[in-house]
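Aggregate trends can hide what the representation actually does to any particular protein. This step matters because it turns folding into a mapping between discrete strings. For completeness, the protein is quoted in full, as a sequence line and a line of structure tokens:
=====
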Amino acid sequence: MMLYLLRHGEAEAQAANGASRKLSNKGRGDIISVARQFVDNKLPAPRCISSPYTRALQTARLFLDQINPGQKPEQSELLTPEIRASEVMKLLETISDEHVLLVSHNPLMSELNALLTDGDISQMHILGTSEFVLISIDIIGLGMGKKTLRLLPEANAVAS
């Protein structure tokens, strides 16, 4: 499996509740920047599963619009910020798709990245907003994946 992890873009500071925070202009620009790099790397369009939170869904839709217009993200409560990486690993074990994109939040994304590639979270890299990581993994388990690509927003990316 080629597992794509994408942390949502920068969101507005406040909203009625945490789940309804929307992407900021910078967040939209950053996601477009990362999506264009994804296309430049000639990666295949993945199945996309997103947190149902507004900023994650906006991130997933904007990313997909750039790489595979018309594709819609699936939503899963297992990708909300409160869920632990071990629960998402159980979900991944049930997925047979070769290319899968997860769009979610921290600490979940950083924990999942660390557990799949390092086997623990002791030296965990904290994924920044709009950060994309590609993990090649045959068996879902601690330390079984290899990080093969990391994409970051280009400096001063702005949504058009």
Notes: The longest strand covers residues 2-7. The helical segments are 25-40, 54-67, 85-93, 108-117.
